């Protein structure tokens, strides 16, 4: 598998140094994630293709830092096909038509095949793409080295699904993971176990806050992230909400409008 990392050139508070997109060259030139349409990304794509025709773009999920560049990529790559797991609420934003993919699909890409693993949680349409011969897993936003992933509970995220997706990838046991943000991950098992433990610790903090009388996501946020920068408050609130929804799925808390309560 011939993989070229093409940075998206879109650094920011939620994208870190910017997105990683990956070009697989060979008989089926394939781009994993479309970037955001930054001209430096488009130029780098053109150069890396070295005259070959881009055949398809596999978009890992409909968040704008992964999908927004689709129209710009389409404009410079006549005939390119865009594929993703459908998320009807967001897919229409990007001005291209999408060929649907689904869990278990095998897609010819580069000089090999990628298996689609539907891994919802961070987003309902989120996929990882697996190159079995090399054990390389394109993990998109499932994992970011040295950080945690936002589960936007009020915008399609589900912690219950996310934990299931993490366990599924742990079982798959890839040799390395190439994320959409940050550095490659050479010890997937250690990182996945740490991720699962991190969520377990957070869940305990949320339960402790509820036991101490906190009733809303905002109160819980102030208790467990006391020093948080304002710009990160919304993400923290979404994460706490994700934990509350997961605990509700587990039958351990109930909710009435904005108020949450332990089941005793
Ligand atoms: Zn995302």
CATH class of the largest domain: Alpha Beta
Distance between the first and last residues' Cα? 54 Å
Tally the helices: what do you get?
8
Bound molecules: zinc ion
What best-fitting shape do the alpha-carbon axes yield? elongated
Strand order across the largest sheet: 1-2-3-4-5-6
| CATH-level-4 superfamily name of the largest domain | Ribonuclease Z/Hydroxyacylglutathione hydrolase-like
* Radius of gyration over C-alpha positions, nearest whole angstrom: 19 Å
* Main sheet characteristics: 6 strands, mixed
Strand content: 15-25%
Global structural class: alpha/beta
Helix and strand succession?
Answer: EEEHEHHEHEEEEEHEHHHEE
- Number of E strands: 13
CATH architecture label name of the largest domain: 4-Layer Sandwich
CATH-defined topology of the largest domain: Metallo-beta-lactamase, Chain A
Low-confidence segments: none
Q: How many domain units?
A: 2
Question: What is the averaged pLDDT score?
Answer: 96
The helical percent reads 25-40%
